[in-house]
Amino acid sequence: MFNTLTRQVEPFEPMEPGVVRMFVCGPTVYDRSHIGHAKTYTQFDLVARLLRKRGYAVTYVQNLTDIDDKIIRRAAELGVEAGELADRFVGSYLEDMAALGNTSVDRFLRATDHIKQIVAQIEQLIDRGHAYRLDDGWYFDLSTFPDYGKLSGRTEVKEEDAVSRVDENAGKRNAGDFALWKARKPGEPYWATELGEGRPGWHVEDTAITEAVFGPQYDLHGGAVDLIFPHHEAEIAQMEAASGKVPLVRYWMHTGLLRVEGRKMGKSLGNFQTIGEALAATDARTLRYAFLSHHYRSSMEINAAVLENSRGARRRVENFARLVDPAHADSPAAAELADRARAEFDARLDDDVDTPGALAVLFDYIRAQNRSGETPGRAAHEFLTDVEDLFGAFALDTAQAPDAVEIDQLLADRRALRAERRFAEADAIRDGLQARGISIEDTADGTRWWVGER
Fold it and tell me: Taking the complete model, does pTM exceed 0.90, yes or no?
């Protein structure tokens, strides 16, 4: 996989053979999660599934930032307690992940459940000379950590950085110094600790959680590309300075950003869409397919055309699945075709999780199998099952619907009627299927059908 830290593709070798400790930055729960979150977490869901498919024992952890400046501001706007607001949007986030089929996370851990660990890590930094106190809290002293910037290749915030959270105080020793602990302010949540009354800074929440679960070092850290600087740089600085062990993480994976109609998504631009809104407009499988048909490191556009193409593509797979007979004994040629496709499919995924390349192999296989004229049997069934185990984007169970044979026969009758130019009778078959909730589409490759609307 491509390692952001080394800027090259490397063989994946976890610290303990056969065991993967994986952490991905979760959301700050001050509002409903948006489709940019859906892209990132769906793509990491596949990464975790792939690692497990390859035989690794994976522990996948995600944090939930449930105390933060954004949460406090939003709670004040709505006239509710910050904790109440966070609870509400933690719940909606977990519902969104379940609706998307993102099932790979083992533990969702909240920052407010780890205040003791956060304080302990900050005390380590103080003891080692990496932190100093100002009137508004404790700060990390970047001058004490020469490796700052090794992940991103820079040390200063730029205007285009999507998420900075570099706290401002005229007394800071260095411009990039960031808050570890924020002193209590009137009306804000706080904890009484050895550091004084206050609450944690954003960056330290993640490293305290990962240290509590994995220790000072682990295998894989993921997040969107806009978190590389300064958030992930700050994580490296905190944990490596506190523990003295390098590296904090062996492999860093970052997903590309999502754009809507050519622009970055934002509420001020009027193109902001929550996951719930997206799922009301389209189905979860189509949305998953759209995300997974792009390479995780690439930025992608989401619009009506992308979703329509994704619907059509996944239905090509589902239409093929209806032809598969798991009990059919394949000919040697058919078995070899499927085995060769599965090997190439796996090779594409093993090359930096190349999901678009893997899907291209799948469609090449479907075309070749269709042209062979043979009934796809056990080998095709096993291949499609493996694909669905990883992608979670195909309704393969519809292939076993009890009325599938009847529907296929009706469509064959319709084709015969149309060939005889008996269009009224052919249209009556179509209308009857639609009344049963069956949609059909005539294409150059034949007539496709599926359950439900487009």
Answer: no
